[in-house]
């Protein structure tokens, strides 16, 4: 078979353009591809929700790749063990109730689950603003290529419409802060000191719709609530992603 470079180029450009056009309107947009965003995306996709995950970096996985202090291992507690099983992530009981797993396998399997569930990924894409109109709800996301932002170029963005947005941007709670900065009646308190037990116990309760159309999950949920951080224990991230998916699916009637 003789390979034609232009056919290769045409395949990439046409396919991704078709997908981007299709996703200019969607049910749910997940901003951030860390553990909470990935879990949420996979579980929404499995329920038949048309959703995309938007990640500013080249790679998906957020803060999970590095495990704890670059030892590529994560710990998950008893309460979230069923999610390790659900996503097929191998684990070993290190001490009663503490399960240790490879962070690389965890990212890979969560990502694979989201792919299998039909989630689309837009990587190298930064959410730089939100759309809020007279109905006072987040109804869309303003996006640009990350390299445009990195190069400091003035290139105007594009807008995606979404019925629900999930802020899964981690410690910085980027989308929530954008909405707060627009004068909306929400306050992003910022995360508190390390206290794994408290942070992990409370994170699911902090996973909620903080403004019409905007649900927070993962570390962003704790940052909005002024809640503690937890270090490299990841059960709360998975449980929070699961909770966010349930909330969004319910809102969408799925
Ligand atoms: C597009 C964006 C934008 C943007 C950021 O940090 P993450 O892994 O987030 P979580 O909440 O799923 O997981 C948190 C966990 O990794 C962690 O840090 C823990 C448990 N820490 C405890 C502790 O004590 O430190 O992923 C967030 C993702 C990243 O990939 C960002 O690149 C991405 O969001 N992102 N994507 N547009 N504007 N901002
Ligand atoms: Fe962290």
Q: What this model shows, in words?
A:
This protein has 254 residues and is of the alpha/beta class. The protein has one domain: FAD/NAD(P)-binding domain. Helix content is 39%, strand content 26%. The chain is built from nine helices and 13 strands. It has helices spanning 5-22, 35-46, 81-86, 103-116, 146-151, 174-181, 196-206, 219-225, 235-252, and strands spanning 25-31, 51-54, 73-77, 92-95, 98-102, 120-122, 125-132, 138-145, 158-167, 192-194, 209-211, 214-216, 228-229. The strands form three sheets. Strands 1, 2, 6, 7, 8, 9, 11 and 12 form an eight-stranded mixed β-sheet that branches. A three-stranded antiparallel β-sheet has the order 3-5-4. Strands 10-13 form a two-stranded parallel ribbon. Helix 7 packs across helix 8 (219-225). The longest helix has 18 residues, at 5-22. The termini are far apart. The relative contact order is 0.19. It binds ligand 48H and fe (ii) ion (FE2).
